[in-house]
């Protein structure tokens, strides 16, 4: 079987869908991170950060999307899926991504302090783990970064 062709226009489109989810988080007062999971060219899961809403520290966009995708596929293995996130996954999310065997991770804004897809550390390609993900970074980076910067500027400006 031939390897799938990575279409960067599709990356742009699917990151746009993740940005829509991030905007929902922003409107809800959550850190504006969105994620979508794609299988065979179709979105099978969409989520945004809901930590404050659910009072759950694990309710990151990626974690919620992984749960939805597993339900959609009917298995915990997501070997033929790609995850798009507006911000580089944290160590918790990266661990879950590796465990679910996501094939490819695409993210917008890097996180030099806590990113686990190559910025602070790289759990997605950690040598001793049993699965490694392909990584594409910087897709629609300016938009993803601006959403985060604006959100935190507003948070700091609050009395």
Brief characterization of the structure:
Helix 4 links the parallel strand 3 and strand 4 (104-109). The model has no long low-confidence stretch (mean pLDDT 94). The N and C termini lie far apart (59 Å).
Give your account of this protein's structure.
The chain has 159 residues and is α/β, with parallel strands linked by helices. 40% of the residues lie in helices and 19% in strands. The protein contains five helices and five strands; from the N terminus they run αββααβαββα. It has helices at residues 8-27, 51-54, 61-73, 91-100, 141-157, and strands spanning 34-39, 42-48, 81-87, 104-109, 134-137. The longest helix has 20 residues, at 8-27.
Task: Using brief descriptors, characterize the structure shown.
159 residues; five-stranded mixed beta sheet; 5 helices; 5 strands; 19% strand; globular
Question: Which geometry do the CA atoms define?
Answer: globular
The low-confidence runs, each spanning 5 or more residues with pLDDT under 50, are: none
The span between the termini is: 59 Å
Number of strands: 5
> Count of helices?
5
Which structural category do the helix and sheet elements fall into?
alpha/beta
Q: How much of the sequence is in beta strands?
A: 15-25%
The H/E string reads HEEHHEHEEH
Secondary structure blueprint with pairings:
Blueprint: H1 8-27, E1 34-39, E2 42-48, H2 51-54, H3 61-73, E3 81-87, H4 91-100, E4 104-109, E5 134-137, H5 141-157
Parallel strand pairs: 3-4, 4-5
Antiparallel strand pairs: 1-2, 1-3
Helix pairs in contact: 1-5, 3-4
